[in-house]
Amino acid sequence: MLLDPGMNLTLRPMKYPDFYEQYKDAIKNTWHVEEVDLASDLTDLNAFTPQEQHLIHRLVAFFATGDTIVANNLVLNLYQHINSPEGRLYLSRQLFEEAVHVQFYLTLLDTYLPDPEERTKAFDAVNNIPSIKRKADFCFKWIDSAFDMQELKTAADRRTFLLNLICFAACIEGLFFYGAFAYVYWLRSRGLLDGLATGTNWVFRDESCHMNFAFSVVDQVRQEEPELFDEQMHREVVAMMEEAVEAELQFAEDLIGDGMPGMTVKDMKSYLEYAADQRLVRLGMPKQWGSENPFPFMALQDVQELTNFFERRATAYQVAVEGKVDLDEEF
Amino acid sequence: MTGLATTPSATTTAPQQREPEQGPAARIAERLRVHAAGLPDVDAEKVVAQIEAGLWPGATEAALRERAIEITSATVASEPTYSKLAARLLAEHIADETAGEGVTSFTSSIAASNANGLLADDLVAFVNANAAALDAVIDESADDRFEYFGLRTVYDRYLLRHPEHRTVLERPQYFMLRVACGLSQSVEEAAELYRLLSTLSYLPSSPTLFNSGTRRAQLSSCFLLDSPKDELDSIYERYSQVARLSKYAGGIGIAWSRVRSRGSLIRGTNGHSNGIVPWLRTLDSSVAAVNQGGRRKGAACVYLASWHADIEEFLELRDNTGDNERRTHNLNLANWIPDEFMRRVEDDGQWSLFDPKETPELVDLWGDDFDQAYRAAEAAGKAKKAVSARELYGRMMRTLAQTGNGWMTFSDTANRTSNQTARKQNVIHLSNLCTEILEVTNDSETAVCNLGSVNLSEHTTVAGFDFERLEETVRTAVKFLDRTIDLGFYPTAEAEKANRKWRPIGLGCMGLADVFFKLKLAFDSEEALALSTAIAERIAIVAYETSAKLAAELGAHPNFEETRAHDGVLHIDHYADARLTLGARWDAVRAQIGEHGLRNSLMIAIAPTATIASIAGCAECIEPVVSNVFKRETLSGEFLQVNRHLITELKERGIWSEKVRQAIIVAEGSVQGIAEIPADLQERYRTAWELPQRALIDLAAARTPFIDQAQSLNLFQAAPTIGKLSSMYRYAWKSGLKTTYYLRSRPATRINQTTVSAPAAEKPTELEVIPADIACSLENPESCEACQ
User: Fold this and answer.
1) For the whole model, what pTM was predicted?
2) Whole-number mean pLDDT of chain B?
3) pLDDT, greater one: B244 or B20
4) Which residues from B are below 8 Å from A305, CB to CB?
5) What range defines the domain where residue B53 resides?
6) How many structural domains does chain B have?
7) Does domain A37-298 have CATH number 3.30.70.260?
8) Main EC class of this protein (chain A) (predicted)?
9) How far is B634 from chain A (nearest CA, A)?
10) Residue B771 pLDDT > 70, yes or no?
11) Any idea where the domains of chain A sit in the sequence?
12) Distance (Å, rounded) from C-alpha B707 to C-alpha B700?
């Protein structure tokens, strides 16, 4: 079984071909930080109001460490216990992507915050900014919960591991990051910070895949060991989601304050609850909040995009292409 | 700051008759109700409720209106009519903003723009002399023709702005009349062109819309520069030309085939050349540095002949892996391919690569002359290296699949069928940024083209396609395109020289897909092919007739004697199997040309029309739609777009529901496999990803006899393989296409959708399941605006 202790090295016959497919798809979408042009963002930043300045500084401070935390948990917990060579292939790939994200946000901070002192402060946000510290503490708590386990021997061990996996997929990637992306797309909907939005599109795409992979691991374990998913587990997941929504909401209060055009704490709360409900539904659990998505600009992220090449770099192309020259294929 | 008014100093005037105690939210609610009146299926109260729910302290009326626009424009995927509501709110915003600058009429907008030094003196004099008559031409109600995205595009980028306040100084209709006046000699002429613009029946390309009547009236879209000579000074002189042309919003095509390849000896220093890549890196930086009047970044496409010894490195310039020192992320790339190469691909033969320093003659040859010289160079052992033709072709396909770039353009077909290449000294060396222009160049002549496009959708009624109206539109369009040649400001002497000599224009079209939707024709049906070809023939014949008439009045273009038309050969004559339906008219125009010549050496080119199709609210040029629900990304934000024809048909049949809407969004705009949607609609509303690409090529090939320049033809493969692509492009070449444009493909993974229901674990979704290869990905093709 997927969570059985050990170091399975057998790729053929392949037990979980879907993991391998996800690995291959991820490779096709390789992107590089150098492709993101942040130049126009600086012009926008100079025209920001103090309220907008505060929001963007807090936001980049969160980005500064968010992906590093996720990468740490991947290495310290996920890689150890997902005992499938194809699953570990995917995780290796994810680790690379997290590194690219870290590099992207490093470049972003170096560009956005020219003052070295401010930069240092931003990278230390997990210690000195309370609204970010609270989110970080939430993450560390869940990293630690699984950290001491060498092997998943008992049902209790496996539930602990599953909660860690679900926490990082549903709460951290699926809620903290989703919250952060919403601010970026809100700014983008007002024609601001195009460079950040471009990079975010790519990060968002990667994070979506990470989440999907984690959920497909959950699905697999559920199939193999349905008894793990009992009432207790359900209660703990809901409690964890509630705590995450709470943490993200106090971050929103810090960022948004009294509100700005098209961005209020009330709407953000509704959005976070809506996103959290979606994670629960994905895990086969009933909705907890029943809120609606209030942000029209998020609806825009659901459809195909047409980019004018004078304005933004298109991102639709794949890196790995197969086959050889043949003049008689159907097309 | 606010997104709409890009300036904090934007002032809004309060509409009259307001009760003083009304707050801004109540006032916006009232305006929403007024604007929603008469719009079917629009619920103003729902929008009001949403605005009230999201109120923040200190919200002003302007900011709340902006919020109302955002909410209504995002609702278009449920109900397309909300686009009109959003457009009306925006029109009100623009009216308020201009009123704040004292602009309430066409003439007052001209006065305000002139006071800020934006306009040409002769335009101001013309308007002052005809003030009352011109004010009477304005049709204020024409604003209601705009969909939201069209009006928003006009507002964000086309209306003249106050140099300091950054507020707009014209309303959309004033802008259109200003453009018309900039090209006119009388009120009647101005009114004639304004009527085409205000009804969105025809639009000139973006540079003309940006600059007509202004102090720097650069009206041309495309510039084609010959390759620099194989010398340092010539290369740097080209950078300078590119920068000057780019500054004034022109799209650049530039060849690089004359420059020596890597390893070639440099006599002056006894060193070896590093080949073309370092030069192209410099070009790349130079293009990125030139910001087109703050409106957009510069853009250029480099053409390289397929026999150039650096071709393999050239094909890697856009890769996002490998050494970044050998990459050019801003340049577009195109292959300039002789027939001999394609023949060797077919025969699975060898292909020789040459250093142009050793074989300088190859650059200026085509057809049999090229074949002979190429084989002679091979026989003389001049090749730098030989490769398998199929291996190189496979690399070209890989570049297309991975980057969309490396466009396939065919040098022999281009030269063989051009009106400009009757004499040996006149050779076409490249196409342009969007692969629809084919004109001769040399070291001292930079080819130029002025473009405009007929909105075919506006010429279609339920009764059918209105050919009569099309003829009127084309006559006016050709007259004014010809006019732009004399009125334009040319950033370089090389461009002016070539344009005055050849006087080429590029009339194209847009909205072909809308015509098919309106007339209920499948894109790949025989009827669609026949209609599309007949439209192309009609545009061509009227353009030729009009140009011949202009030649009779004003004289033929100066080097008419060097053209095939002078020798009695018209473009259609190169195509024995052209579907001619107007034989007698072609005979008549041939006789007229024999007598007076042509005013323009070339007339027809189908540009991509990305931006002007947005303004007109129609499908891009001759292209199928890529999705029935998609967003457009621009510098000023993201905008949701839906296929209104589809929703209208679904409503007529009582099928349109929230469930169907979500199914289409989950399927990323595809209607295939959705059980509720009947088979005939699934057939007609296939997206570009779902149509057989053979049909796109066949339509383009049937149209080619009537396109004396070329067409920007994108091809689509959701999941490209080298095998599929190599067959497809070989078919395009065999079919006689002169050029092709982007290869569009889709990424392997996508962002998780947030606003449609998440599929529950281990439960089949309520919606019909879409095949994974269609539903799997977010897509994001690039599209061109230089030409339009």
Assistant:
1) 0.85
2) 90
3) B244
4) 630-633, 638, 778-780
5) 1-100
6) 1
7) no
8) oxidoreductase
9) 6
10) no
11) 37-298
12) 10
